[in-house]
Amino acid sequence: MDPExxxxxxRLREKGGTERWQPIxxxxxxxxxxxxxxxxxxxxxxxxxxxxxGPAITRRxxxxxxxxxxxxxxxxxxxxxxxxWLRHTTLTWVERHFGYGGATHLxxxxxxxxxxxxxxxxxxxTIYARVPTAMKEAVDxxxxxxxxxLTGAVVDLLGRGLEAVADEKSIDNLRTNLARVTxxxxxxxxxxxxxxxxxxxxxxxxxxxxxRVGTCPNCKKPITGADLFAVTRCPACEQPLTDLLAPKAGxxxxxxxxxxxxLLGALxxxxxxxxxxxxx
Length: 280
Prior knowledge:
The structure is a single chain. The protein has helices spanning 26-38, 59-72, 74-79, 83-103, 133-146, 150-209, 225-231, 242-245, 257-277; strands at residues 2-4, 9-13, 19-23, 109-113, 116-120, 212-215, 222-224. The two termini are 78 Å apart. The longest helix has 60 residues, at 150-209. Helix 4 crosses helix 6 (150-209) and helix 6 (150-209) packs antiparallel against helix 9 (257-277). With 280 residues, the protein is mainly alpha-helical. It is rod-shaped. Among the domains are: 1-57, no CATH class; 127-190, no CATH class; 210-277, no CATH class. The strands form three sheets. The protein has a three-stranded antiparallel β-sheet. The protein has a two-stranded antiparallel ribbon with strand order 4-5.
């Protein structure tokens, strides 16, 4: 940590080798510079905070200080208050008062003014933009309604805007998927209509095949379309029925011509379905 008393800033060396300049009050910068000179922090790379004997303090020193505080204030020990606890509690407060967008940026500093302490939210990047007066007034009204500062309102609105842009892409994807599903639904419905028609055709053929189409030329008993085309024999006398399909010259047909035409029509519809299925 490298303080500059004349500028009111201190250079912090953080985890990962990152460095940044942190604004502080001129009084604090002066005190830190005097402390560095008194206790041996000469080089900019030297640890600033040190014991009176000269060695640099460590994190164990902070733990020891909190234990001492806990001995004097029992509630500190009971709640496990520590430097990390303060940081986490402050971040939770920031999220509640400035919204999720503000809380996603790590709070960077505490700005001191006399005896008051105010929390400052410092982003990793600073954005300057000129906006219309009406927009500025709308943001002020938004901050006033929610009891937040202007910076918190801007961060919250910007975060909401970015989420809305992301949602637009999601909506476009949903619309594309909806159009695709609609087409697929129409195709399925068309296939369902075709399947129902085919099922009706098969049911009609099965019904016609069970109907009486004539009589056996031998025993004069009724025969059905199934007897004629499937079994090819009379169920009563076992007489072959093939001659009925190709009768000899001068022979008298015992078939009902109307019923035969209806049966052949149903059979033709079934054959048509079978043929079309081979073309898919």
